[in-house]
Amino acid sequence: LGVFPRGPPAERRPLRWQAGSLCPVRRLRRPHPTQLYQHVPDSRWPIVYSPRYNITFLGLEKLHPFDAGKWGKVISLLKEEKLLSDSMLVEAREASDEDLLVVHTRRYLNELKWSFAVATITEIPPVIFLPNFLVQRKVLRPLRTQTGGTIMAGKLAVDRGWAINVGGGFHHCSSDRGGGFCAYADITLAIKFLFDRVEGISKATIVDLDAHQGNGHERDFMGDKRVYIMDVYNRHIYPGDRFAKQAIRRKVELEWGTEDDEYLQKVERNLEKALQEHRPDIVVYNAGTDILEGDRLGGLAISPQGVVKRDELVFQIVRGRQLPILMVTSGGYQKRTARIIADSILNLYSLGLIGPESASVSAQNSDTPLLPPEVP
User: Fold this and answer.
1) How far is 124 from 352, CA to CA, in rounded Å?
2) How far apart are the first and last CA of the chain?
3) CB 189 within 8 Å of CB 206
4) How far apart are CA 217 and CA 57, in angstroms?
5) What is the pLDDT of residue 151?
6) Is residue 372 part of a domain?
7) 3-class DSSP state for residue 312?
8) φ and ψ at residue 207, rounded to 5 degrees
9) Annotated catalytic residue 278
10) Which one of 34, 202, 251, 302 has the fewest beta carbons within 10 angstroms of its own beta carbon?
11) Beta strand pairing status for 204-208 and 325-328?
12) How far apart are CA 175 and CA 219, in angstroms?
């Protein structure tokens, strides 16, 4: 399985006492066997997807503003543009209970066996009235498959220099609570898997550019110095989690209606500073498109071109420093979101920031500002 055990954080490892000694001896726990870390042929790009990502059941998915079929639409658009074919994609696998227990509590996973809990997390009230076996199959299995996709993409990013999970980015979910359409903590899981299984991966940076605060991973990594969190979000909207904000090392709070120029300058400047303050072994980029103008839940006013430019900035800055990057697509509540994500991926390819030959990107551009430095 390509497993290189590193063990969990020292303070959480089980202890045993050595005879005749006052010092505890650490007992290293081997990672469990998983189907998520398997060899991927070089012929496949590190773009992870499964048709099982999409949630369609009796029209219930239409009761939430989230486009629960956007992931398949992104892939269809990339195929239409002749960028990808099925044989070039990595098929996501569903995360098992054992995989999920790397982060989640057993109690939380048991709560998901109640339809009421899932209805609350997904914000789709009629789910309350569905038998839980249907909820598991039609709602949670797609989310578990996306979660598996994020974990798989984490390893691919380390191996190839970059990876994109066309789903995932459930940044409101932590080890013991879900919310905001986020039932599994895929970002936390991807990082924990890397820490535990891949030699040389001991520090991570999360760059969360969804319009909402990423309180899930913030709660999970509270006090963990190995993980640096940069979060750029609308300060006035959900979740407003003050406790979780304590985990943010670089916090950029935006006002209603923030537009392209101010937004892009703040992203560039703060990302540069974040990577100077903490050089990670992996960057996890939560690329929510709910920053788009007209998104009634995000409350910002970024143009489609601004979203594409944002992703370009992040990839150019991160890859210019020879750092692996994992991108997840996260929030986005408009029908045109899929087109914009596809356009962004096409743009990254056209610039040589992703693709079969882009295992490394020259660092020569990393010292050159990509936008005029006007906004602090």
Assistant:
1) 41
2) 45
3) no
4) 29
5) 99
6) no
7) helix
8) -110, 100
9) no
10) 202
11) unpaired
12) 8
Structure tokens at 47: 């773009």
Angstrom distance (rounded) from CA 147 to CA 242: 26
CATH number, residue 284 = 3.40.800.20
Tell whether 11 is covered by a domain: no
Q: Within the chain, what is the greatest distance between any pair of CA atoms?
A: 69
Would you say residue 36 lies in a domain? no
Torsion on CA atoms 341, 292, 154, 87, rounded to nearest 10: -10
Look up the pTM and report it.
0.88
Contact criterion met (CB below 8 Å) for 197 and 3: yes
Residue with tokens 């939560």: 286
Q: Which of 104, 172, 217, 278 is catalytic?
A: 172
Counting the structural domains of the chain, the total is: 1
* Signed CA dihedral, 9, 15, 18, 22: sign only: positive
User: What letters, b where the CB count within 10 A reaches 16 and e where it falls short, cover 114-134?
Assistant: ebebbbbbbebeebeebebee
Residue ranges making up the domain that contains 315:
44-367
> Using one digit for the tens of pLDDT, what is the confidence trace for 278-308?
999 999 999 999 999 999 999 999 999 999 9
DSSP-assigned letter for residue 292 = B
Neighbours of 203 (CB within 10 A): 15
Instruction: Report which secondary-structure segment, H or E, holds 162.
Output: strand 162-165
β-pair partners for 285: 207, 327
The residue to which tokens 């590190």 are assigned: 46
Answer yes or no: is 375 within a domain: no
Q: What is the pLDDT along the chain (376 residues), one digit of tens a residue?
A: 443 333 344 333 333 333 433 444 444 578 999 999 999 999 999 999 999 999 876 556 455 455 667 999 999 999 999 999 999 999 999 999 999 999 999 999 999 999 999 999 998 888 999 999 999 999 999 999 999 999 999 999 999 999 999 999 999 999 999 999 999 999 999 999 999 999 999 999 999 999 999 999 999 999 999 999 999 999 999 999 999 999 999 999 999 999 999 999 999 999 999 999 999 999 999 999 999 999 999 999 999 999 999 999 999 999 999 999 999 999 997 889 999 999 999 999 999 999 987 654 433 333 334 454 444 4
Structure tokens at 78: 């990339």
DSSP letter, residue 186: H
Q: How far apart are CA 119 and CA 206, in angstroms?
A: 28
What does the block give as tokens for 335?
């029908």
